[in-house]
Write a structure and sequence with these properties.
The structure holds 2 protein chains of 2 kinds. By secondary structure, chain A is mostly helical. Chain A has 6 helices and no strands. Chain B has a domain of 65 residues. In chain B, the strands form 3 sheets. In chain B, strands 1-2 form a two-stranded antiparallel ribbon. Chain B has a two-stranded antiparallel sheet with strand order 3-4. Chain B has a two-stranded antiparallel sheet with strand order 5-6.
């Protein structure tokens, strides 16, 4: 058997993965954002291609799993890896949902919800990467970041309820394909916030 | 462009529901509802007791759904019920997931 990786090397690998996921998250946020520097169609064509390429490229970054130690550290790392895979797979689902929408026009109520939630998800991705780096250096420094992540996840849950309720009141019981897909994007973003929080819970133990 | 092209004719819904008319009378319907909420132990106990009472009665399950205008969804009950319980215990958090599923009894409308 090959020699097992140490804690710092493992943290480094996770940080590398998160860095790429953070970029994907940023592209998606900029595409969905109403008020910020949004990506127009032409620019999105390139970013979209790049986002898919980044996700494909991520697969090789999990090769370090071959050299996990056969102990608690290995088990904790395996749990985080599983959440990281969920995160990138969910981003991939969102990219496909955006493809499904093509450039159809939507109701603005959805755009507000998408902006708010995608911005917080993006913030969580950054915070999780920072947390991994902090934990690599200093065991105590990351507690504050964990609290921020827990707070953001809770906010996203609340935003989700408020936004869905607003939409429900504003539109009555009408529904259509585009609305369904947009609501799906919000739901997927909310799922990512769960995975990020759960990863952070484990990072706090490593 | 995705964002600013607001079309007034377009209608959407907070009910996460989809009704696609495929052709003529053929209609596909998918309904999905989902939210997460923090509760106290006591509030959770109330919810579970309420659900238990309705399951005991065996007719329908009224579930709170704060994301909807009506604030509640009504789900028809049926047997047998598939149950799943998933537990993860960590140093900082404990996760307990319950999942329930049952066959839908065909109504006159569906035929």
């Amino acid at each position: 058997m090959t020699e097992a990786l140490d804690r710092n090397t493992i943290m480094g690998h996770m940080s590398n993965i998160l860095e790429v996921q953070e970029r994907v998250s940023e592209y998606i946020h900029r595409r969905l954002c109403v008020n910020c520097d949004e990506l127009v169609d032409e620019e999105w064509l390139n970013k979209r291609k790049e986002a898919f390429k980044l996700i494909r490229g991520l697969i090789d970054k999990y090769t370090f799993s071959k050299k996990l130690p056969r102990d608690d550290l290995g088990i904790l790392t395996q749990s985080i890896i599983s959440h990281l895979l969920n995160i990138q797979h969910t981003f991939l689902r969102i990219l496909v949902l955006i493809d499904i929408l093509q450039d159809e026009s939507f109701n603005e109520i959805f755009m507000d919800s998408l902006s708010t939630i995608s911005s917080k998800v993006n913030e969580m991705m950054t915070a999780l990467r920072e947390m991994v780096n902090q934990r690599a250096k200093n065991l105590h420094e990351a507690e504050e970041t964990l609290e921020i992540l827990i707070k953001l996840e809770r906010e996203i849950d609340e935003d989700n309820i408020v936004i869905c309720r607003q939409i429900s009141v504003a539109t009555g019981s009408d529904c259509d394909f585009v609305s369904y897909i947009m609501r799906k994007i919000v739901a997927e973003l909310e799922h990512i916030s769960d995975y990020v929080k759960e990863s952070a819970e484990i990072v706090a133990e490593i | 462009m995705l964002t600013k092209s607001y079309n007034k004719k377009e209608k959407c819904t907070g009910l996460i529901s989809l009704a696609l008319h495929i052709k003529g009378d053929c209609k596909m319907r998918i309904e999905e509802y989902e939210f997460e909420e923090e509760k106290t132990l006591e509030n959770l106990a109330d919810l579970l007791v309420e659900i238990a009472d309705q399951i005991r009665a065996g007719e329908k399950l009224e579930l709170p759904m704060p994301t909807l205008r009506e604030g509640v969804i009504v789900v028809p009950l049926g047997e047998p019920i598939e149950t799943g319980i998933e537990v993860t215990i960590r140093r900082h958090f404990i996760h307990v997931d319950f999942a329930l599923a049952w066959r839908r009894i065909k109504s006159v409308e569906d035929k």
